[in-house]
């Protein structure tokens, strides 16, 4: 459970959140860092980073199916902090959404109106309260927990020389004192942390040792752990290779599943976060620009592929070089050079409307003057 939820939280928290202003149906403008919406997305509060806030948000939703941000500050200096879901109780007679939230702290309780909180929640069925995904996994996790304890007890309590002793039927009967003495001596020497644990015992009176050990393979320890991890990953729609199940993983299908992760698994989460922020947070920051402002997670770096693939796609799209010399040097942490800010234009390329295209085969230099005829060839012809 922790493996899957932490995987989701870390991958979402790693993504940057950008704030934009719509400028028509086909254009937009990214807000500068001084805008209140950009500031609260970059630095939610003085004590919480964006990564920690988003990481906690995903953990709360994945475990409790609800999460809360408390709005603090003002419209000019907005800030938000996380409130643990276990401390919040929705109240009110409104069946569509709670009107008041009661927060229980270390020094008592306090009520906040609904507009003071950003309320994230999943599907709850009969009410507005989300239902924890752990409810769907309760039986599976309970069985895994009980089975894990049972297997641990078997492996812990078993003697290093696991099995039982047989005495011949015609052996001399043991007295109770002799039986107890042999039992205590056996456990002291060969069981637990005895000095001869794992050694070869010496048996008397025709006794025979019969092995009856249960190894981790016999207990199907690894199979049960893998099955539980697969079930948890399926509930959160995470591809199995992403959480370490590599039985059927290849290079090609892992690459495709990585793309599927950000499209099908994390895509709905990111869309929900962006819409809830637009609905519950932006009206407090910019009331007059609710229809123009919005936030968006930056997925380009995750879905753009390797640098070689991106470079080939970009060159095909623009039809020529798309990076200057200094831009390429900056990627390698090298200083700029003079003349490196001009985009190189190959001689065999031109643009529509170019008034002075460079002819094919021309290197752009001035033509060389024709050779001077000094008449030497004519004199040779006359002599002939």
Secondary-structure blueprint:
Blueprint: H1 2-13, E1 17-22, E2 28-30, H2 36-42, H3 50-64, E3 66-73, E4 78-83, E5 88-91, E6 100-105, E7 108-113, E8 117-121, H4 134-157, E9 163-166, H5 176-190, E10 208-211, H6 221-235, H7 251-280, H8 282-285, E11 293-297, H9 300-303, H10 307-318, H11 325-331, H12 376-383
Antiparallel strand pairs: 1-2, 1-11, 3-4, 3-8, 5-6, 6-7, 9-10
Helix pairs in contact: 1-3, 4-6
Structure description:
With 384 residues, this protein is of the alpha+beta class. It has three domains: 2-133 and 237-300, no CATH class; 135-221, no CATH class; 319-364, no CATH class. The chain has helices at residues 2-13, 36-42, 50-64, 134-157, 176-190, 221-235, 251-280, 282-285, 300-303, 307-318, 325-331, 376-383; strands spanning 17-22, 28-30, 66-73, 78-83, 88-91, 100-105, 108-113, 117-121, 163-166, 208-211, 293-297. The strands form four sheets. Strands 2-1-11 form a three-stranded antiparallel beta sheet. Strands 4-3-8 form a three-stranded antiparallel beta sheet. It has a three-stranded antiparallel beta sheet with strand order 5-6-7, with no helix packed on it. α1 runs antiparallel to α3 and α4 packs antiparallel against α6. The protein starts with a helix and ends with a helix.
């Amino acid at each position: 459970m922790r493996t899957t939820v932490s995987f989701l939280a870390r991958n979402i928290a790693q993504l940057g959140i950008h704030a934009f202003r719509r400028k028509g149906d086909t254009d937009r403008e990214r807000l500068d860092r001084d805008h209140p919406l950009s500031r609260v997305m970059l630095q939610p509060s003085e004590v919480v980073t964006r990564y920690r806030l988003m990481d906690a948000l995903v953990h709360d939703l994945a475990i409790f199916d609800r999460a809360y941000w408390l709005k603090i500050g003002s419209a000019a200096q907005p800030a938000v902090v996380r409130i643990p879901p276990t401390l919040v109780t929705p109240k009110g007679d409104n069946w569509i959404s709670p009107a008041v939230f009661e927060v229980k702290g270390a020094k008592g309780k306090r009520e906040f109106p609904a507009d003071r909180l950003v309320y994230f929640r999943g599907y709850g069925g009969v009410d507005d309260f989300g239902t924890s995904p752990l409810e769907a996994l309760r039986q599976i996790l309970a069985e895994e927990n009980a089975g894990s304890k049972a297997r641990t007890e078997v492996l812990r309590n078993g003697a290093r020389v696991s099995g039982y002793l047989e005495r011949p039927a015609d052996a001399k009967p043991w007295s109770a004192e002799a039986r107890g003495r042999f039992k205590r001596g056996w456990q002291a020497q060969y069981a637990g942390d005895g000095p001869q644990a794992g050694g070869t015992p010496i048996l008397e009176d025709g006794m025979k040792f019969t092995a009856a050990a249960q190894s981790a393979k016999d207990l199907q320890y690894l199979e049960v752990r893998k099955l539980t991890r697969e079930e948890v990953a399926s509930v959160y729609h995470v591809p199995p290779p992403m959480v370490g199940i590599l039985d059927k993983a290849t290079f090609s299908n892992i690459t495709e599943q990585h793309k599927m992760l950000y499209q099908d698994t994390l895509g709905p989460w990111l869309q929900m976060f962006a819409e809830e922020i637009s609905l519950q947070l932006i009206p407090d920051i910019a009331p007059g620009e609710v229809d123009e402002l919005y936030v968006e997670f930056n997925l380009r770096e995750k879905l753009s592929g390797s640098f070689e693939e991106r470079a080939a796609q970009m060159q095909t799209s623009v039809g020529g070089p798309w990076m200057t010399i200094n831009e390429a040097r900056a990627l390698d942490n090298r200083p700029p050079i003079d003349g490196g800010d001009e985009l190189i234009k190959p001689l065999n390329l031109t643009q529509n409307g170019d008034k002075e295209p460079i002819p094919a085969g021309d290197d752009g230099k001035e033509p060389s003057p024709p050779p001077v005829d000094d008449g030497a060839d004519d004199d040779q012809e006359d002599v002939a």
